[in-house]
Amino acid sequence: xxxxxxxxxxKDIVKGYIDNHEEGVFGYDKKLNIRPPYQREFVYKxxxxxxxxxxxxxxxxxxxxxxxxNEKTFEVLDGQQRTMSFCRYVNxxxxxxxxxxHNLTNTEKEQILNYKCxxxxxxxxxxxxxxxxxxxxxAGEKLSSQELRNAVYxxxxxxxxxxxxxxxxxxxxxLAKDYVTGSAIRQEILEIALGWISKGNIEDYMSxxxxxxxxxELWQYFLKVINWVKMVFPSYKKEMKGIAWGELFNKYEKKKxxxxxxxxxxxxxxxxxxxxxxxxxxxxxxxxxxxxxxxxAFTDSxxxxxxxxxxxxxxxxxxxxxxxxxxxxxxxxxxxxxxxxPNNLQMLCRDCNRKKGKK
Length: 359
Fold this sequence. Notes:
Layout: E1 2-9, H1 10-13, E2 18-20, E3 24-27, E4 32-33, H2 46-57, E5 65-69, E6 74-78, H3 80-90, H4 106-113, E7 116-123, H5 126-136, H6 145-152, H7 156-165, H8 171-176, H9 188-198, H10 202-209, H11 216-232, H12 245-252, H13 259-270, H14 281-287, H15 300-309, E8 326-330, E9 345-349, H16 350-358
Parallel strand pairs: 4-6, 5-7
Antiparallel strand pairs: 1-7, 2-3, 3-4, 5-6, 8-9
């Protein structure tokens, strides 16, 4: 990675500044892309924005910024929020304490325009750029993991993917807001969809598709997942939000389910006090794996009482053990209606408990 430090006055950066929904955000005589496709919207609050201007007016140093150098142009890698703050101020878009750009003295204007920003020009391949982006992303408005990936794998595919997944009120949010968590503009819904379709290999998937014309494959996959969930569980409950639906879809898409029976099971499990994780009911009904339910465990006090009643002996093999070598076990299994109550507790050594669990 080649890195060079430059001192660039604000007057050069704001030259040709434009913030247009269709054209984008540019400065530095149209040679600097201030908000490339991978960058977020302007998110600074008024206090943060004003602090940038205050820092400049007092002549204090701003944190260094980073631009990616292309053949003839640059992209803001880090420093977009600070750059847009002073560009908007010089463009007379806001004021501070009733003083805007138009009513500053010429001396005050010159002081701001001649203020020198410390900027690193960075050149390198995709991997070097991602590694560097991770290193510098340690202060200010931190980027999410997906925003970091977007910085590297920008292109036609990402532009189309963001259209579906990354805008306020985008199609993915409207479709799946009741089933997935996260913010569209922070790229969290996009990250969820990518994690599902790539089975966790998000960077590989983005690299392979970077220069594709569109993200239709990802969007159609996401549609299939959400529609599958609605088909398997027609009656919605708030506990369905945030489940790793794509992972379940990838493994159990072709499995047949009895909707009426599933609904009965859901009502029964929702009312079961031993099920401490109600959202786990849905993956449990699909997979049959009890781990999703976080079945209520016996307390240490209950296990100590049972241990003393058994004189420290395992109920099955009758051998003597220390209490920390034993485990609390349901005499009548939970799957058969056994409850997590003292009268349904026996202490077994680890080996016997494992053997019982395999039966």
